[in-house]
Amino acid sequence: MLARAWDAGLAAIVVTGSDGVSNEAAAALALRHPARLYATAGLHPHHASDWTAALGQRIAELAKTPQVVAIGECGLDYFRDLSPRPAQQAAFIAQLQLAITAGKPLFLHQRDAHADFLAILREHRSALADCVVHCFTDTAAALDDYLALDCYIGITGWICDERRGAQLLDAVRRIPAQRLLLETDAPYLLPRSLKPAPKHRRNEPAFLPWVLRSVAQARGDDEAELAMQTGANARHFFRIDVQTGRAKL
């Protein structure tokens, strides 16, 4: 999988942590592939009921390591409500505070929870480093709210879906070039524009160029220039040194 990613032109991959087990796995993977793989550490709202002081302490410890470049994935998800909303909010706030202490950027998740998510984020935003609203699929009004808080916006293969991604084709034009990040959300959100279509539904990093192509077409941008811009944005956001490939503590 990594060989296919490098062959597709990717220079580095950020592996997302979303609970205690995946945080450790992502950090270990990044440690084995320095300057190529990086990790995040956090608790996804689906797992918010699992929040404990011990887990928070472990995320804080991981955040001190150079391979862990962001806190998250964290936020609110009222679409599935796999954890009670009060638990989601408590875990989200706790991770915002961890990010403030660590001085590291935030990898954020929000689905069908914009009002509460925005209120909580707004309250803490001035003390936070950079933030990215990952896998953005919301409205233009929500996009404007996040841009007003100086957030980065992550666009995935959702935009490659002519059924679900139609409104994104308009919204993505509103994102300033310096605030745009491209991502796969692998193993989810396999781009529907992928040709030939694979027999499986598993997404992987090598398919990021299809996201790039759809975003460039929607914005009227040159693909190569957009790739350079979003790559520079990612290195800046995750504080990765261009010369060494190392994350800055």
Helix-strand makeup class: alpha/beta
In whole angstroms, how far apart are the ends? Answer: 28 Å
Residues in helices, as a percent range: 40-55%
**What topology, given as strand order, has the largest sheet?**
1-2-3-4-5-6-7
Question: What is the residue-mean pLDDT, rounded to a whole number?
Answer: 96
CATH topology of one domain: TIM Barrel
Biggest pleated sheet: 7 strands, parallel
Structural account:
This protein is of the alpha/beta class. The protein has a domain at 69-237: Alpha-Beta Barrel (TIM Barrel), CATH 3.20.20. 41% of the residues lie in helices and 14% in strands. The chain is built from nine helices and seven strands. Strands 1-2-3-4-5-6-7 form a seven-stranded parallel sheet. Helix 4 (85-102) packs parallel to helix 5 (114-124). It starts with a helix and ends in a 12-residue tail after the last helix. The mean pLDDT is 96.
Descriptive terms for the model:
globular, alpha/beta, about 250 residues
